[in-house]
TrEMBL record:
<keyword id="KW-0659">Purine metabolism</keyword>
<feature type="domain" description="Oxo-4-hydroxy-4-carboxy-5-ureidoimidazoline decarboxylase">
    <location>
        <begin position="19"/>
        <end position="172"/>
    </location>
</feature>
<keyword id="KW-0210">Decarboxylase</keyword>
<keyword id="KW-0456">Lyase</keyword>
<comment type="pathway">
    <text>Purine metabolism; urate degradation; (S)-allantoin from urate: step 3/3.</text>
</comment>
<dbReference type="Pfam" id="PF09349">
    <property type="entry name" value="OHCU_decarbox"/>
</dbReference>
<dbReference type="GO" id="GO:0051997">
    <property type="term" value="F:2-oxo-4-hydroxy-4-carboxy-5-ureidoimidazoline decarboxylase activity"/>
</dbReference>
<protein>
    <recommendedName>
        <fullName>2-oxo-4-hydroxy-4-carboxy-5-ureidoimidazoline decarboxylase</fullName>
        <ecNumber>4.1.1.97</ecNumber>
    </recommendedName>
</protein>
<dbReference type="InterPro" id="IPR017580">
    <property type="entry name" value="OHCU_decarboxylase-1"/>
</dbReference>
<dbReference type="InterPro" id="IPR036778">
    <property type="entry name" value="OHCU_decarboxylase_sf"/>
</dbReference>
<dbReference type="InterPro" id="IPR018020">
    <property type="entry name" value="OHCU_decarboxylase"/>
</dbReference>
Length: 178
């Protein structure tokens, strides 16, 4: 019986210099390569050549960061179905994630709803609404958006950080699958 090969990242993170790791994996956290750098400083073993293990360690680095650093990472995300998405200014990962959830297909009413919620949310929390959109459609995203607007600021920061860790995990797994 053939055994299935575990998915591994290439280049192997455990074999990367700091510069190589940042070059290849620095962008899995949106505009925040310091997360990959912190993982390298922590020390990478062959176990981290598996996307889930590297995602776990990078997530820990973000969880252990100060609340100011965490907020800067959240702020590095573009609005969902926002103007930057419409004018093609997003990173490749953000573009495909937003399109994958059908956010580029919103009706004018849905775009207006996103615009209203994006502004209301940013006004309340001081950072944009971030959600791991893989597997969600725009109706589920809008429902989560309305619900999370009721959270307090500390809960919402922690929720956004967990979602960002999940986004990075999806990005690393997708790279290992290529
Ligand atoms: N979730 C997945 N991708 C994105 C993105 O580009 N922006 C926000 N706000 N959330 C996301």
């Amino acid at each position: 019986m053939p055994t299935s090969n575990p998915l591994l990242l290439s280049p192997a993170p455990s074999k990367c210099s700091l510069e190589m790791l940042t070059h290849h994996y620095g962008d899995v956290y949106e505009h925040s390569p310091w997360v990959a750098e912190a993982a390298w400083q922590h020390g990478l073993t062959e176990a981290h050549d598996a996307p889930d293990a590297l995602a776990e360690l990078m997530g820990l680095m973000l969880q252990q960061a100060s609340s100011e650093q965490q907020i800067r990472v959240i702020q590095a995300h573009p609005d969902l179905a926002g103007k930057a998405a419409m004018s093609g200014e997003l990173t490749q990962d953000s573009t495909s994630e937003q399109a994958g959830a059908g956010l580029d297909q919103c009706s004018p009413e849905e775009f207006a709803r996103f615009e209203y919620l994006n502004e209301t949310y940013k006004e309340k929390f001081g950072f944009p609404f971030v959600i791991a959109v893989k597997g969600l459609n725009r109706h589920a995203i809008l429902a989560a958006f309305e619900e999370r607007l009721n959270n307090d600021a500390v809960t919402e920061r922690q929720t956004a950080i967990e979602q960002i860790i999940q986004i990075a995990r999806f990005r690393l797994v997708a790279r290992a699958e290529q």
